[in-house]
């Protein structure tokens, strides 16, 4: 299958670049911090892509799942449990459970009602986090230390953390690909295109969507675990709806057509913010119009750019 | 008499003040092609919706293979062996013709909660899907996205999807709608080939096709069954001629 091999080239290239980054002069502290953040947000965006691009449901409450993963780290840190082999599954499980419970209600709807319900659940999680006085309430919570891995302090090591984020991002990306191509993914994609047709051949879309939503929640929880470790600090702002909007934007900027779009969109948005920040202190003023232009002119998102360019060349 | 595959028992459906299905009772025997004809707006599609489970009747029962399915949704009835095609073509535009049909095969063969193996690489699904495509004359178009098929080809694809379900009853809502004379002829020949193997409830405006295919014809006018019988008897029925066929002949 040459088409699928071509589709794999760009992701492989990007992951190879990220793997080589520390040795390409990008090993400085601030740059490594930025890259780790990019990969973590990439993982979060990937999980949201599963919902938006995979299942065709636009959610505006995804930051809650990221935040719940981060707060699972906080809760265990408070109890002096820092082993990643315990903390990470707890973060994944907590976020997946939240996704399954809220999804069970939200997925009774679709379209605009679905957006509103996910937003409402996200806000509930946000206000709950803000009222957790023993975890710092509004002020947030500073971790005693990063998680240990199998007893060792691997995550404190800058390179170790870099490669952990990269491995999890690449693994999640591969997983999304396999998932969407599987029997399960086929039903999910079909229900996105035409739910009536899917029912007419014997599938109720609901359980497929719910499970996809739960899986996405677990992935976002994993991203939350990494984010808490990256910043060693967790605050309710992690769950704010603005953060959900940002994730949604990354997914759309990157392109809904492929999970690679989410990864690309997350990295692009982060680098854009960083680059504009170096140019001018008023960078937020520039970001808005740039994003509008991107949505207007990049129809298939960043992943669709090569095809779009080839198309214009052929027609122009 | 053999147990019918489908029995409708006093179905009634109202939209606001309009009674669209009015005490409709009919039966379809195994292997029988039962045509429902009637003027535009007679309530034929609404009747099909109630049989397939997209609409819930206000009163009456739908019995399928001896089981009361009145309360079951579309997906459950489909799994019991009730396949329908849509008057307005309803395929998956972004899927290839093959994948459209393979999804239907998947629906009747094992669990679809399988997560890592590529579905497109499952030979069993692809072979059954190809067979259904070949049966409807679409084998050469398997890899084409449904959105790029011609209107007539999409009608054939609708039929291929229904056949791939290996149903006990086919509900066909105007399978010839919008097809050219050549395509219509091919589809009629195809439906002829299904005779005896499937029970078919057929809604169709093309009278030549109806009288060529049907074992029984029921005439629906303003939601009511005006007459039901063998094609020749229906053709000769004066009430039917006045209410429906007459329009055709006058035109
Ligand atoms: N959802 C609905 N709400 C209100 N009225 C409806 C609805 N669906 C159908 N109707 C009305 O019910 C009547 C029967 O419609 P139906 O589509 O069943 O007719 P039909 O016999 O299939 O017609 P055609 O030959 O044009 O396909 C029409 O008058 C239609 O306007
Ligand atoms: Mg109709």
TrEMBL record, chain B:
Lineage: Bacteria, Pseudomonadati, Pseudomonadota, Alphaproteobacteria, Acetobacterales
Keyword presence, Nucleotide-binding: yes
InterPro entries assigned to the protein according to its UniProt record, in alphabetical order: AAA+_ATPase, ABC_AA/LPS_Transport, ABC_transporter-like_ATP-bd, BCA_ABC_TP_C, P-loop_NTPase
GO cellular component: plasma membrane
Listed name of the protein: ABC transporter ATP-binding protein
One function term, GO molecular function aspect: ATP hydrolysis activity
Keywords annotated in UniProt: ATP-binding, Nucleotide-binding, Transport
Ranges for domain ABC transporter: 6-247
SUPFAM superfamilies xref list: P-loop containing nucleoside triphosphate hydrolases (SSF52540)
One of the Pfam families matching this protein, by short name: ABC_tran
């Amino acid at each position: 299958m040459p088409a699928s091999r071509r589709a794999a080239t760009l992701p492989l290239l990007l992951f190879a670049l990220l793997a080589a980054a520390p040795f390409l002069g990008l090993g400085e502290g601030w740059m490594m911090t930025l890259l780790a953040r990019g990969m973590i947000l990439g993982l979060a965006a990937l999980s949201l892509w599963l919902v938006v691009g995979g299942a065709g449901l636009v959610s505006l409450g995804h930051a809650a799942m990221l935040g719940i993963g981060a707060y699972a780290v906080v809760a265990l840190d408070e109890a002096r449990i820092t082993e990643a082999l315990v903390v990470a599954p707890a973060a994944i499980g907590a976020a997946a459970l939240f996704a399954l419970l809220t999804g069970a209600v939200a997925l009774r709807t679709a379209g605009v009602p679905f957006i509103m319900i996910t937003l409402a659940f996200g806000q509930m999680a946000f206000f709950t986090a803000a009222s957790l006085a023993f975890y710092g309430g509004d002020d947030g919570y500073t971790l005693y230390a990063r998680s240990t891995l199998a007893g060792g302090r691997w995550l404190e090591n800058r390179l170790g953390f870099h490669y952990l984020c990269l491995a999890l991002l690449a693994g999640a990306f591969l997983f999304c690909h396999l998932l969407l191509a599987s029997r399960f993914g086929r039903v999910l994609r079909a229900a996105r295109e035409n739910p009536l047709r899917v029912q007419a051949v014997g599938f109720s879309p609901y359980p497929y969507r719910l499970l996809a939503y739960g899986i996405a929640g677990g992935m976002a929880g994993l991203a939350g675990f990494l984010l808490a470790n990256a910043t060693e600090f967790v605050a309710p702002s992690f769950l704010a709806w603005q953060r959900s909007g940002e994730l949604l934007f990354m997914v759309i900027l990157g392109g809904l057509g492929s999970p690679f779009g989410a990864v690309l969109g997350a990295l692009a948005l982060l680098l854009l913010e960083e680059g504009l920040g170096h140019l001018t202190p008023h960078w937020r003023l520039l970001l808005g119009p740039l994003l509008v232009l991107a949505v207007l002119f990049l129809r298939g998102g960043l992943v669709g750019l090569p095809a779009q360019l080839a198309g214009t060349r052929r027609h122009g | 008499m053999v147990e019918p595959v489908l029995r409708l028992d006093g179905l009634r459906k109202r939209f606001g003040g309009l009674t669209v299905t009015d005490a409709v009772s009919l039966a379809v025997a195994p292997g029988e092609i039962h045509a429902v004809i009637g003027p535009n707006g007679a309530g034929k599609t609404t009747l099909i919706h109630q049989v397939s489970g997209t609409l819930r009747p206000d009163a009456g029962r739908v019995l399928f293979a001896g089981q009361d399915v009145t309360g079951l949704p579309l997906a459950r009835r489909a799994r019991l062996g009730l396949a329908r095609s849509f008057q307005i073509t309803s395929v998956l535009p972004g899927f290839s013709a093959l994948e459209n049909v393979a999804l239907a095969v998947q629906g009747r063969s094992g669990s679809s909660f399988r997560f890592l193996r590529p579905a497109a690489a499952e030979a069993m699904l692809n072979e059954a899907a190809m067979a259904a495509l070949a049966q409807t004359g679409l084998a050469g178009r398997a890899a084409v996205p449904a959105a790029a098929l011609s209107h007539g080809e999409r009608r054939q694809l609708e039929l291929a999807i229904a056949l791939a379900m290996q149903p006990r009853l086919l509900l066909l809502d105007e399978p010839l709608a919008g097809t050219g004379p050549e395509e219509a002829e091919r589809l009629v020949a195809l439906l002829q080939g299904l005779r005896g193997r499937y029970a078919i409830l057929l809604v169709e405006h093309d009278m030549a096709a109806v009288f060529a295919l049907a074992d029984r014809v029921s005439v629906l006018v303003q939601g009511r069954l005006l007459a039901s019988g063998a094609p020749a008897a229906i053709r000769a029925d004066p009430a039917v001629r006045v209410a429906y066929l007459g329009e055709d002949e006058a035109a």
